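Researcher: Let's do a round of design. I'm pasting the structure tokens now; please hold your answer until I've finished.
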């Protein structure tokens, strides 16, 4: 798995900064390419 590029996270940033996220509070939004959904070890690259 490679490191994230700015384009990989820009959609999440745009969403959180938009009015569409007005009802989202106190949550986590992992933008990690599915790494946090894996059952395997989490190696930070």
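Researcher: That's everything. Go ahead.
Model: Designed sequence:
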């Amino acid at each position: 798995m490679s490191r994230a590029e700015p384009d990989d996270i820009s959609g999440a940033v745009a969403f959180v900064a938009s009015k569409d996220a007005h009802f989202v509070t106190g949550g986590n939004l992992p933008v990690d390419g599915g790494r946090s959904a894996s059952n395997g070890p989490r190696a930070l690259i």
